[in-house]
């Protein structure tokens, strides 16, 4: 299992706009070359190309529209409007029609690059073959494009599982976790530094291989089941007093010190693992690993924005690099507990600096010299000051008989 600093390197980031930047640069360079080679007809060439690229998708959209209207208008659209739902679903939206119309207008105003008959032949032939190749999948979206669309529109399996885990479980139980731990400590007489503030959060384990053990002590001998927290009963989906519970474990470090914490696996990963084991799901091991990473990223984003769950959880991503280490799980849990302790110490505000005594310095000297000026007000609350000098005996009074002092 990797350290906390390497954990972020495993999580895929959302895709950016770099393909758009490269495409715009390539189009600008190509258009510039055409202007240099054929300055008198470059506008006509650009209009012709745009018209071909927009007419092809329109013809393919008409092919899709025939299928939707004949076989799926009632089951998929349930009588919804043709213009508002069916046409945009087939790719016959306003943007494509507007681009095709502007390209046609520009071609009619500019000098055509080819004779009119040749231009129509090129336009119809290219558009028809585009629709054919698109329908056959030759011009279909690549895996990167499909992945980008699914991530952007939240259509992955991981997105649904993450939202289900949050809405159906974490949002319900995490607000009551601290109270349950306080009751547990009172009944079990736990009041020692081993149950630190960081261990009063729910530690959620997310293994990359999605292989979950139902008993943590079977996976690591340094982890021992202690007891369950008090049950949390919530009326849910017609079930009265549905029970939600958490388990407390003792984790032993390399020095034999025990740490109590509430830890459990993310149960939706059981679904991902079962899908990868069923051939009918079409969900292999590479797809499973990718979905686990997306599940982690999506759940982290959801919990970061949740006020009910803030500061009540900690996600632990488990890599499967060191499966031969029998204590890898306990080491990962302890590493996160210690990391949380360090973070809390860093955010603790430093103590106030001691201010000099108000009677010291210029203002105090003026007061002792008989001046009527008041000392400067304190900028902070007064603090006690102690002298480190050794105590000295009191001086006896000396009788002064000098008449000049009378």
From TrEMBL:
<dbReference type="GO" id="GO:0061709">
    <property type="term" value="P:reticulophagy"/>
</dbReference>
<feature type="transmembrane region" description="Helical">
    <location>
        <begin position="21"/>
        <end position="39"/>
    </location>
</feature>
<comment type="similarity">
    <text>Belongs to the STING family.</text>
</comment>
<feature type="transmembrane region" description="Helical">
    <location>
        <begin position="45"/>
        <end position="65"/>
    </location>
</feature>
<keyword id="KW-0812">Transmembrane</keyword>
<dbReference type="InterPro" id="IPR055432">
    <property type="entry name" value="STING_LBD"/>
</dbReference>
<dbReference type="GO" id="GO:0061507">
    <property type="term" value="F:2',3'-cyclic GMP-AMP binding"/>
</dbReference>
<dbReference type="GO" id="GO:0000421">
    <property type="term" value="C:autophagosome membrane"/>
</dbReference>
<dbReference type="GO" id="GO:0005789">
    <property type="term" value="C:endoplasmic reticulum membrane"/>
</dbReference>
<dbReference type="GO" id="GO:0048471">
    <property type="term" value="C:perinuclear region of cytoplasm"/>
</dbReference>
<dbReference type="GO" id="GO:0033116">
    <property type="term" value="C:endoplasmic reticulum-Golgi intermediate compartment membrane"/>
</dbReference>
<dbReference type="GO" id="GO:0045087">
    <property type="term" value="P:innate immune response"/>
</dbReference>
<dbReference type="InterPro" id="IPR038623">
    <property type="entry name" value="STING_C_sf"/>
</dbReference>
<feature type="region of interest" description="Disordered">
    <location>
        <begin position="348"/>
        <end position="378"/>
    </location>
</feature>
<keyword id="KW-0547">Nucleotide-binding</keyword>
<protein>
    <recommendedName>
        <fullName>Stimulator of interferon genes protein</fullName>
    </recommendedName>
</protein>
<feature type="compositionally biased region" description="Basic and acidic residues">
    <location>
        <begin position="348"/>
        <end position="357"/>
    </location>
</feature>
<dbReference type="InterPro" id="IPR047191">
    <property type="entry name" value="STING_C_chordates"/>
</dbReference>
<keyword id="KW-0472">Membrane</keyword>
<dbReference type="InterPro" id="IPR029158">
    <property type="entry name" value="STING"/>
</dbReference>
<dbReference type="GO" id="GO:0016239">
    <property type="term" value="P:positive regulation of macroautophagy"/>
</dbReference>
<dbReference type="GO" id="GO:0035438">
    <property type="term" value="F:cyclic-di-GMP binding"/>
</dbReference>
<dbReference type="Pfam" id="PF23417">
    <property type="entry name" value="STING_TM"/>
</dbReference>
<keyword id="KW-1133">Transmembrane helix</keyword>
<keyword id="KW-0256">Endoplasmic reticulum</keyword>
<feature type="transmembrane region" description="Helical">
    <location>
        <begin position="86"/>
        <end position="110"/>
    </location>
</feature>
<dbReference type="GO" id="GO:0002218">
    <property type="term" value="P:activation of innate immune response"/>
</dbReference>
<feature type="domain" description="STING transmembrane">
    <location>
        <begin position="44"/>
        <end position="154"/>
    </location>
</feature>
<feature type="domain" description="STING ligand-binding">
    <location>
        <begin position="156"/>
        <end position="341"/>
    </location>
</feature>
<dbReference type="InterPro" id="IPR055434">
    <property type="entry name" value="STING_TM"/>
</dbReference>
<dbReference type="GO" id="GO:0000139">
    <property type="term" value="C:Golgi membrane"/>
</dbReference>
<dbReference type="Pfam" id="PF15009">
    <property type="entry name" value="STING_LBD"/>
</dbReference>
<dbReference type="GO" id="GO:0051607">
    <property type="term" value="P:defense response to virus"/>
</dbReference>
<dbReference type="GO" id="GO:0032481">
    <property type="term" value="P:positive regulation of type I interferon production"/>
</dbReference>
<dbReference type="GO" id="GO:0000045">
    <property type="term" value="P:autophagosome assembly"/>
</dbReference>
